[in-house]
Amino acid sequence: MDYVNGPGRNHLFVPGPVNIPEQVLRAMNRNNEDYRSPAVPALTKTLLEDVKKIFKTTSGTPFLFPTTGTGAWESALTNTLSPGDRTVSFLIGQFSLLWIDQQKRLNFDVDVVESDWGQGANLEVLASKIAEDRSHTIKAICIVHNETATGVTNNLATVRKILDHYQHPALFLVDGVSSICALDFRMDEWGVDVALTGSQKALSLPTGLGIVCASPKAIEASKTAKSVRVFFDWSDYLKFYKLGTYWPYTPSIQLLYGLRAALDLLFEEGLDNVIARHARLGKATRLAVEAWGLKNCTQKEEWFSDTVTAVVVPPHIESSEIVKRAWKRYNLSLGLGLNKVAGKVFRIGHLGNLNELQLLGCLAGVEMVLKDIGYPVKFGSGVAAASAFLQNSTPLIPSRI
């Protein structure tokens, strides 16, 4: 049996799917309804307008696909590119690897820039490639904003500066699955042409919505892109947008109402406050890791992620044993190490509907697990380091001031 019940609540600290707020669960607890009735298009219209706010765009066009982030990847690529087009894509971890694999299987000419896992995208190599590409053979830059496997966040503003410096017309495509609604993201300011996220991450919804936002430049590119697409075709959505019915096929009614509740919660807290909360939780987790005498997989502070921390274990410890013991004994769910870092790291997710005391409970649980598997952790060391930081940095809850 994959899952058996345990007393109390499961402490979910994987980097997605994340905890779902009670308000969202209640909003989704409803019957099906006719999506062609006036109610669902009216709801959809408000969702599309409000989704633009989480991308920080006024000019982008959003699309809500009943899919995962993988489907959102495919939509971003196939609507803007043609088979054989050259892309530059950065391999820095498991999820960037999967997106590169998708690009290759869709028959694009992928120019892979690889870094050690734990490092960010090598933007010096990007600058060199862009400078040399005077004939503009590079059609798109594809980058994962936050690589969940290693806890690395890339600097998107620098990518835009490179493109602008060389006046290069390449499209700028960004995977923001584990960043948007948790990390600073500015679609218009950074000139991002396609950004995407998934509902099960910082939005704190169930899996099932792939949310894509396209700039006017990307919409224009979609008119001539020759990649085959059907389910993910933007033109089908745009046709129904004009008709005011919005949906070319059946949406998930429950997820739409859940999205409405999730957005309301984010806006009530304030998006900048949400980002600051994630920054506090990320810093507190890193302080705990340091107090335990362990290392962060991310190799430089400039790349530290505020949504997930990948913790490197000593060579004699198998990190999957930490994850197994946490779930079996303490009802604590931690993230496994993936691919090149399998067995070498475990991951603490700190994104979505999460507060300071929940995080401290997780850190206490990790300390017990470390002691269980023979690592000489001092009880309370990580919790104390995190607590001291959070006690000095946590503001009053905005809605209660």
UniProtKB/TrEMBL annotation:
Where N6-(pyridoxal phosphate)lysine occurs, the residues are: 201
Q: Which GO terms describe its molecular function?
A: alanine-glyoxylate transaminase activity; L-serine-pyruvate transaminase activity
Among InterPro entries, the record links this protein to: Aminotrans_V_dom, Aminotrans_V_PyrdxlP_BS, PyrdxlP-dep_Trfase, PyrdxlP-dep_Trfase_major, PyrdxlP-dep_Trfase_small, SP_NH2Trfase/AEP_transaminase
Q: Give the cofactors, semicolon-separated.
A: pyridoxal 5'-phosphate
Q: List the GO biological process terms.
A: glycine biosynthetic process, by transamination of glyoxylate
EC number(s) on file:
2.6.1.44
Question: TM segments?
Answer: none
- What keywords tag this UniProt record? Aminotransferase, Pyridoxal phosphate, Transferase
One Gene Ontology cellular component: peroxisome
Q: Does the keyword Nuclease apply?
A: no
Which stretches make up the Aminotransferase class V domain? 16-297
UniProt: substrate binding residues: 347
Family the UniProt entry places it in = Belongs to the class-V pyridoxal-phosphate-dependent aminotransferase family.
Can you say what this protein is called? alanine--glyoxylate transaminase
